[in-house]
Write a structure and sequence with these properties.
Blueprint lengths: L4 E7 L4 H10 L6 E8 L5 H8 L4 E3 L8 H14 L4 E4 L8 H6 L4 E5 L11 H8 L3 E8 L9 E8 L6 H24 L3 E4 L2 E4 L17
Helix pairs in contact: 1-6
The chain binds glycinamide ribonucleotide.
Glycinamide ribonucleotide binds next to helix 1, strand 5 and helix 6.
C-alpha cells in the first residue's frame, strides 16, 4: 500500500469522533494516520484520550489570540509543522477565516449531526425534532467558508422515533457518526472522494438500492 496520509484532527470537547478516527487508523491497512490532535480549549476531554493513544496533542486556546486571523495562522503553523495533509474537524466549534479555508480547500473535512443542508449550526437534534422529520442522520463534507456547508462526501440516515428526545436522537446519530467519519476519511485519503467545484465526486462506491420508510409500511 502507498504511504498513509497524515491527518490532523481539530477538537473542542469530548472527542468521541476523534476517538473513532484514531481507532480506525489503528488498522494497518487504513489509508490515513492521525499524527496530531489540536484543541482550542484547554479543558477538552478529547486531548487526554488522544494522548493516551500515543498521539501528539497541542492546545491552542483561541482566547490567547487577538483575532481570528492570528489564531488561524497559529493553527495552520501547527498543522504544517506536523506535516499534516488532511484536516478533520471533529466537534471543532470555531469558524475559520476564508484564507484558512482556502489553504485547506479539498483537504479539510467536517462532521455534522444532521442530514445537511438541513439543520446546520447549533442544536441540530432540537431542530430536527421541531421540524418533525422522520429521518435525521449525519453528514461528512468538505469545508467551505460558511458554517456546516460544503460538498457532501457521505451521509448516514437514522430514523426519528415518536418518543425521541434530543438526547436519544443525539445518541442514535452519534453511533452513526462514529461509523461514518472513518469511512469518509478513508475515501478522501485514498483519493476516491475529491472536491470538484461545489460537488464531491466519489469513485467506486455502492449506494443502497432500496428506499427506507418511516413509519415502516404494513406488510
Ligand atoms: C458531534 O456530534 C459532531 O457531529 C458535532 O459535535 C459533536 C462533537 O462530539 N459537530 C457539530 O455540531 C459541527 N457543527 P465529539 O467531540 O464527541 O466528537
Amino acid at each position: 500500500m502507498s504511504a498513509r496520509r497524515r491527518v490532523g484532527v481539530l477538537i473542542s470537547g469530548r472527542g468521541s469522533n476523534m476517538k473513532a478516527l484514531i481507532e480506525a487508523a489503528a488498522a494497518k491497512d487504513y489509508p490515513a494516520e492521525i499524527v496530531l490532535v489540536v484543541s482550542n480549549r484547554a479543558d477538552a476531554a478529547g486531548v487526554a484520550i488522544a494522548a493516551a493513544a500515543g498521539i501528539k496533542t497541542r492546545t491552542i486556546p483561541h482566547k490567547d489570540f487577538a483575532d481570528r486571523a492570528t489564531f488561524d495562522a497559529a493553527l495552520d503553523g501547527a498543522l504544517r509543522a506536523a506535516g499534516v495533509e488532511i484536516v478533520c474537524l471533529a466537534g471543532f466549534m470555531r469558524l475559520f477565516t476564508p484564507a484558512f479555508v482556502e489553504r485547506w480547500r479539498g483537504r479539510m473535512l467536517n462532521i455534522h449531526p444532521s442530514l445537511l443542508p438541513s439543520f446546520p449550526g447549533l442544536d441540530p437534534h432540537g431542530q430536527a425534532l421541531a421540524a418533525g422529520v422522520r429521518f435525521s442522520g449525519c453528514t461528512v463534507h468538505f469545508v467551505t467558508p460558511a458554517m456546516d456547508s460544503g460538498p457532501i462526501i457521505a451521509q448516514a440516515a437514522v430514523p426519528v422515533h415518536a418518543d425521541d428526545t434530543g438526547e436519544s436522537l443525539a445518541a442514535r446519530v452519534l453511533a452513526a457518526e462514529h461509523r461514518l467519519y472513518p469511512i469518509a476519511l478513508a475515501l478522501v485519503a485514498e483519493g476516491r472522494a475529491r472536491m470538484e467545484g461545489d460537488r464531491a465526486v466519489i469513485a467506486g462506491c455502492a449506494a443502497p438500492a432500496e428506499a427506507l420508510f418511516n413509519p415502516v409500511p404494513a406488510p
